[in-house]
Amino acid sequence: MHSYPKRVAVLFGGLLIALAFVAAPATHADEWDRMTRFSINQPFQVPNATLEPNTKYLMKLLDSPSERHVVQVFNEDQSRLLSMFIAISAEQMRPAEGTEFTFMEVDPGYAKPIQKWFYPGRTIGLEFIYPPQQLTDIAAHQGGRSVTTLSAEVIPAPVEEPTQIAEAQPTEIPRAEPEPQPEVAPAPAPEPEAPAAVEEPAPAPEPAPAEELPKTAGELPFIGLIGLLSLGAGLTLRAVRH
Q1: Residue 172 has what pLDDT?
Q2: Number of domains in the chain
Q3: How far is it, in rounded angstroms, from Cα 10 to Cα 52?
Q4: Does residue 12 lie in a domain region?
Q5: Lowest mean pLDDT among 141-150, 162-171, 182-191
Q6: In whole angstroms, what is the distance from residue 70 CA to residue 162 CA?
Q7: How far apart are CA 131 and CA 137, in angstroms?
Q8: Is residue 96 packed enough to be buried (19+ CB in 10 Å), middle (13-18) or exposed (0-12)?
């Protein structure tokens, strides 16, 4: 009969201790990504990281409209991402009055793992999923207490490459490359024409044999000479008679 009041006392004591870990004045939240700044007065754990006490940290959801279960943990000014992991939905009966964390029970002196996170005014929160190796280590410091057996692969933090300032270089206007022309098959070489047949010149007609002149043509000078001599003789005789 005395066990029930004792359990109630232990439960309320645990809640008071959990709430004492959160410094209320250092907590600030945002509705969209549930951005929350907080500080805890003893070492604590989130999936894949162990964080220092009395140090301000920032926790929020990944800025994605389709995925609302990826949690990111940064240092105070968000200059360094400390952890990023997947969570699942958790529910409680009453709305959270402020940012509320619940912790797994572990041995004194061991960093307390955050088990659930409730945003102010909500009954639906997130339960953190620890990777198997870290979950095994937590179980070893629970003194035989039960431990949540949820596990999943931890999302690696994106690596930011250092920004290098390049020297100003004159802007070079890229030359327009000529558009590739379709390949044209070379025209087939013309076949050599057959040499035209050379007509041999017709043989020149042989000259006709010269016609022989009548033999009388060769006697004309002789006849003329005789005539002249006869004329001369006649004139001489005529002159003698006179």
Answers
A1: 56
A2: 1
A3: 26
A4: yes
A5: 162-171
A6: 25
A7: 10
A8: middle
Which domain range does residue 106 map to? 3-140
Q: Which neighbouring-strand residues pair with 202?
A: none
Structure-block tokens of residue 55: 């140090």
Backbone dihedral angles phi then psi of residue 191, each to the nearest 5 degrees: -70, 140
What does the block give as tokens for 183? 């390949």
Q: Would residue 21 count as lying in a domain?
A: yes
* Tokens of residue 110, six digits: 């061991």
- Total residue length of the chain: 242
The answer to the question of residue 195 being in a domain is no
- How far does CA 91 lie from the centroid of its chain? 44
Kindly state the tokens that stand for 129: 């999923």
Q: Give yes or no for residue 197 having a pLDDT over 50.
A: yes
The whole-angstrom distance between residue 155's C-alpha and the CA centroid of its chain comes to 24
Least Cα distance to 145 among 185, 105, 87 occurs for: 105
Torsion angle in degrees (nearest 10) through CA of 76, 82, 83, 84: 60
